[in-house]
């Protein structure tokens, strides 16, 4: 192990491996952040659409009840 570390080209290749690993960690972190942000946005959009549908349904029901009361 000591003889392997004494050779300079092995040290440079070791440094390249370390930089490649750090780049891969940055890529993994970026991918995780992007996935989390996209999933949060999708959840927010779905919740907003559900709320809009509920509001539309409630308003139509209330309008129907109001129309029935006004007719009777």
Automatic annotation (TrEMBL):
Keyword annotations = Membrane, Transmembrane, Transmembrane helix
- Top-rank taxon, per record: Eukaryota
Membrane spanning stretches = 29-62
Name assigned to this protein: Transmembrane protein
Q: What organism is listed for this UniProt entry?
A: Elysia marginata
């Amino acid at each position: 192990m000591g003889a392997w570390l004494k050779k300079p080209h092995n040290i440079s290749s070791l440094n390249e491996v370390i930089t490649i690993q750090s780049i891969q960690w940055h890529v993994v972190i970026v991918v995780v952040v992007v996935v989390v942000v996209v999933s949060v946005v999708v959840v927010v959009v779905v919740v907003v659409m559900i709320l809009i549908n509920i509001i539309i349904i409630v308003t139509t029901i209330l309008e129907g009840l109001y129309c029935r009361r006004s007719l009777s």
